[in-house]
From TrEMBL:
It is found in: Cytoplasm. It is an enzyme of class 4 (lyase). It comes from the Bacteria. GO terms for molecular function: deoxyribose-phosphate aldolase activity. It comes from Propioniciclava coleopterorum. One of its GO terms (cellular component) is cytoplasm. One of its GO terms (biological process) is 2-deoxyribose 1-phosphate catabolic process. The lineage of its organism: Bacteria, Bacillati, Actinomycetota, Actinomycetes, Propionibacteriales. This is Deoxyribose-phosphate aldolase. Belongs to the DeoC/FbaB aldolase family. DeoC type 1 subfamily. The keyword Cytoplasm applies. Its main location: cytoplasm. It holds the Pfam family DeoC. The keyword Iron-sulfur does not apply. The gene is deoC.
Length: 222
């Protein structure tokens, strides 16, 4: 499916997760998101509540970026973010636990966050696909679905193993079918990469250099 500029924009979570981000930066992000026609903005939990109408959906992160937080801590963070106005929560799993073969822990921590942030809050599960084997990607996706998540997501964009790949997106889509969304994030820096992710099965994209991508250039961001 060849996307138009407006169609691609509507798949984007326009993202600002830099530790140095200020409230003024977030306001500028929201203004840019509205002008570009993106689906949402994605900001750190400390930026909530926004204190203004973003004009788009508001997403935040949980257990970010390492995922090395207890399920209870992740659940508390997610619940607080929802109280502060988040429409969507992107949680990071404990990748090490999954790599140890403990998919039951992965499912349990996702379920804890799901219970703390029930529907209609959209829950996306970041699995750090670049750090996983294919079998581990499948196990993570199955755990996310079993625990009631709405999306599986490739990456934080902060992991040294890298970000999204078309292979990982395709495998995630094959695993969850049309039952969950698939979000590609991390390293999607131009139109061709964005289109490749959508062709592989992504239904949402995490971008920080959204304007450059939509204009056909190359982003230096997330």
């Amino acid at each position: 499916m060849t996307l138009t500029r407006a169609e691609l924009a509507q798949l984007v979570d326009h993202t600002l997760l830099a530790p140095t981000a200020t409230h003024a930066d977030v306001r500028a992000l929201a203004e840019e998101a509205a002008a570009l026609g993106t689906y949402s903005i994605c900001v750190s939990p400390s930026m909530l509540p926004l204190g203004f109408d973003a004009g788009v959906k508001v997403a935040t992160v949980c257990g970010f970026p390492s995922g090395k937080h207890t399920p209870a801590a992740k659940a508390f963070e997610a619940a607080e973010s929802v109280r502060n106005g988040a429409d969507e929560v992107d949680m990071v799993i404990d990748v090490g636990a999954l790599k140890e073969g403990d998919a039951a822990h992965t499912e349990a921590e996702i379920r804890a966050v799901r219970e703390a942030a029930p529907s209609p809050t959209v829950l996306k599960v970041i699995i750090e696909s670049a750090a996983l084997t294919d079998d581990e990607i499948v196990a993570a996706c199955r755990a996310a679905e079993a625990a009631g998540a709405d999306f599986v997501k490739t990456s934080t964009g902060f992991h040294p193993a890298g970000g999204a790949s078309a292979h990982a997106v395709a495998l995630m889509r094959e695993t969850v079918g049309d039952r969950l969304g698939v979000k590609a994030s991390g390293g999607v820096r131009d139109w061709a990469a964005a289109q490749a992710m959508v062709d592989a099965g992504a239904s949402r994209l995490g971008l920080s250099g959204t304007a450059a991508v939509l204009d056909g250039g190359t982003s230096e961001g997330y």
